[in-house]
Amino acid sequence: METEVVSMTAAMLNGDREVVGFLTSGGTESNLMAVKTFRDYGRAQHPHIRRPNIVRYIS
């Protein structure tokens, strides 16, 4: 089911066959996975940054 949902979403957003994705069960998990994904991307693209900052909103 996850593969089908990701494929359908990619098609709606004009994605190609290289688009990847996954589903999460809630907002907290989605936020944590987004931060982890960007952290991993940042480590790969900018290895010279040793202590990255995260900016967050608090109300």
Task: Provide the gyration radius in Å.
Answer: 15 Å
Strand percent estimate: under 5%
Helix content: 40-55%
Low-confidence stretches: none
SSE succession:
HH
Shape type = extended
Total of helices: 2
Structural class: mainly alpha
Structurally, the number of domains stands at 1
N- and C-termini, Cα separation: 37 Å
Number of strands: 0
- Mean pLDDT value: 92
Largest sheet: none
Short recap of the structure:
With 59 residues, the protein is mostly helical.
Q: What distinguishing features does this structure have?
A:
59 residues; mainly alpha; single chain
Can you tell me about this structure?
There is one protein chain. By secondary structure, the chain is mostly helical. The protein has two helices and no strands. The protein has one domain. InterPro entries: PyrdxlP-dep_Trfase, PyrdxlP-dep_Trfase_major.
What's the layout of helices and strands?
Blueprint: H1 2-12, H2 27-45
InterPro entries: PyrdxlP-dep_Trfase, PyrdxlP-dep_Trfase_major
